[in-house]
Structures are given as C-alpha cells and as structure tokens.
Amino acid sequence: MSEELHDHDRGLSFDLPTLQRRKMIRLLAGVGLVPLVGCSSDDSDSSASSSSSSAGSSSSAASSGSAECETIPGETAGPYPGDGSNGVNVLKESGVVRKDITSSFGSASGKAEGVPLTVTLTVVDAASGCGTPKEGAAVYLWHCDRDGNYSLYSEGVTEENYLRGVQETDAKGQVTFTSIFPACYTGRWPHIHFEVYGSLEDATNATSITATSQLAFAKDVCDTVYASDGYDRSVQNMSQLSLETDGIFSDGYDQQLATTKGSVEKGYTATLTVPV
Questions:
Q1: Backbone angles phi, psi at 119, to 5 degrees
Q2: Cα(182)–Cα(144) distance, rounded to whole angstroms?
Q3: Among 36, 91, 154, 192, fewest CB within 10 Å belongs to which?
Q4: Would you give the distance in Å from CA 25 to the centre of its chain?
Q5: What is the CA angle 271-191-198, rounded to 5?
Q6: What is the mean pLDDT of residues 167-179?
C-alpha cells in the first residue's frame, strides 16, 4: 500500500469541522464552562493478561459514576470503507453478516493471519446517559491486516474481503467480532473503523448511517503484539507516532481507547462502549 493512500486516511478536510468542534468543547471544559464526560467499556473479565490498556480502564472508572454521556466522536471512514462511498460496496454482498471476519467470504478464500483479537462493541443511547442498550442496531466493522493492507483496495488483496463484517446488536446492545490485531501502517496509529446503523436492514443496504468512528489501542498492548512474528513493519511505523500526534486521535481519544486484555499466545479482547 502506498504512503500517499495512507495519508488520505487522515481525512482532515472531511473531519475539520468535527475536529474544531471537539477541540472547542475541550477548551471550554478546561475552564469549567462545559462538562465533558466520556463513556468507555466496562470489561468484567478478571482473567490475567500480559498487557492491558490502563488508560482505557481509567476512563471507564472515571465515567462509571456519572449520568452524563457524550456521543462517540465522529471520524472519517477513510479511503477504504467498502460501504459504497468509495467504489466497492461489500455491505450488499451475501455473507457479510458474520461474527468471524478473519477469512474472506463468497468467491474469495483468503485468510488474514496475525495475533487473535476479539472485539466487542456495546452500542448505547447517549441521551439516556449511556444507560440504555441499543438493541437491534447494527455495526459494520473493518480494519487493515497484519501487513497494513485493506481488503478490496490494497494491491494484492483487491479480490479479498476479509476483516470486514456486519452484526446486529443483541439485548445488551453488543456485537462481537473475531479478528486479528491490525498493523500500524505509515502515518496512522493502530485503529479499527466502524459504522453504526439503525438496523441490520439499513446496514446491508448501506443507508442511514447513525455514527462513523474509530477505535484506538493503547501503546503498551501494541508494543507487545508488534514484537511477535509477522508485525515487523509495525515496529518502525509505531516509533514515529503517538496518539497525541495522530491525525485522527490528536484532539482526544478517551472515548475511543479500547480496554484491551490478553496475551500474544492466547489472543486479545478489546471492548468499547459506543454512545450514539
């Protein structure tokens, strides 16, 4: 994948109004004029892990005692959405509704290799203070592979559609995807894209998007994963980035930093609450 295309994923021209709005809110909150409270995932899994997102845990603890809730920050879908907004539309393909997104579906047969990752997103009603799950909504989730390539778009994997999938939220407002830990490619902090739709029908017809955002990973977890086999390129790319300098997360990432637990050997779990 070319560096030029990756730079487009910053989407600054697309996101500028959103970024300016969020920065202004943070500025006002800093002088006590506007309350700013984030919502993050509460993971009850107490199993031991070799790496965890302490920042994500802190965000969850800070928000648990508040009735206020901010909607998930809106972010660009980037140049590789696969939702029909930039060329191909995988959402209308039979088989896209699935939990395990490691392999391609339909006529494609490729499989993404890497450290196992299970992603659970909990979609909640922001107006209720994050207290009401959004049952029957839908989430479309996608991300790059271990080499930093996006299926459907990147050279060598244009005929693949792995690491893309849709699911309907359950009674808890949750969807869970089985995947692999994404790479860190040139110019972007490790992340996962997702879109929230009002219903499964809306998602599979690529209409009426409720929210578009991105999930981020903590540095300690990324460093551990990228020290394992197959992620060599990510080590150098990570050394040139930080969450504070990333073109998307530099204006704030508390609500988007996943709580991540696990190990390279057993795989990781990443959880995030998504208020809409």
A1: -110, 125
A2: 6
A3: 36
A4: 23
A5: 60
A6: 98
Residue written as tokens 């999930």? 215
Q: Name the average pLDDT for the chain.
A: 82
What confidence tier does 18 reach under pLDDT thresholds 50, 70, 90?
very low
Mapping DSSP onto H, E and C, the string for the chain reads CCHHHHHHCCCHHHHHHHHHHHHHHHHHHHCCCCCCCCCCCCCCCCCCCCEECHHHHHHHHHHCCCCCCCCCCCCCCCCCCCECCCCCEHHHCCCCECCECCECCCCCCCECCCCEEEEEEEEEEHHHCCCEECCCCEEEEECCCCCCCCCCCCCCCCCCCCCEEEEECCCCCEEEEEEECCCCCCCCCCEEEEEEECCHHHHHCCCCEEEEEEEECCHHHHHHHHCCCCCHHHHHHHHCCCCCCCCCHHHCCCCCECEEEEECCCEEEEEEEEEC
Q: For position 188, what pLDDT does the model report?
A: 98
Q: Is 269 a residue whose pLDDT tops 50? A: yes
Which position has the token pair 């006002």? 28
pTM of the model: 0.79
Which tokens go with 252? 């704030």
